[in-house]
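JOB MANIFEST
job_type = single_chain_structure
chain_count = 1
residues = 279
[input]
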Amino acid sequence: MGHRTKRRLGRAGLYALVAGLLVYTIFPFYWMTVSSLTPGSALSAAQPVPLQPTLEHYAGVFAEQPFGRNILNSVVVATATVALSLVLAVTAAYALSRVHFRGRPALLLTVLAVSMFPQIAVLSGMLELVTWLGLYNSLGSLVLSYMIFTLPFTVWVLTTFMRALPRELEEAAIVDGAAPWQIVTRVFLPLLWPALATTGLLAFIFAWNEFLFALTFVLSDEERTVPVAIALISGGSAQELPWGRIMAASVIVTVPLIALVLVFQRRIVSGLTAGAVKG
């Protein structure tokens, strides 16, 4: 009986811990949604449920600034960053995991070390490069600067995954006359989908949420991405800030990320757990 009681208490404690984590993680998004649906006159009342839900804040976000264009800019930048990072990372991962050359471990560590630099440390250098390339105040400047951080991460992760693939697959392809590019695209790529989904989604989230480079390299409202567009929503003093519109804009830019995670959740879990257990 004592053993059963301990098991029940342990299970109850586990459930309480899980419930606490769910409340901690979900409540901010819930409160953001409630605030976005609450009329401006009732925001100070802190209602747990909007008594008179309204979409005025959502309409205001698109009416008072080019927020639709800002969303499109973020989609273009994040998608281009992910696509370029994955294409370059797959080829680099093949070279780093399958091709033997002098200095390969040092090169791999250098690639990883690049991603550890804080953004502010490379901001001035990137500004000079972006200006020299003529990309200032354009979406290309953001794609170029974001790849400094997304590419090293994707290269490191995909190298680890590709190194774990059986060498017999590559040897069989070579016997059949396959070239290195055919080995990468036809043999390894179908097996790397979980890793590609994981790294691609993380890179997309970084590019979607990045603020410092987007604020520095882009000046016009039509070229801004959504994090900067939300930060620039203002109503004068801190007491006069349009919190309803800010919350509505935050909900709009958060929902796509939640949808992506839900769509790719199985591949993400497979990518994160692959290689954890070896037979």
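[summary]
The chain has 13 helices and no strands.
The radius of gyration is 24 Å.
exit_status = 0
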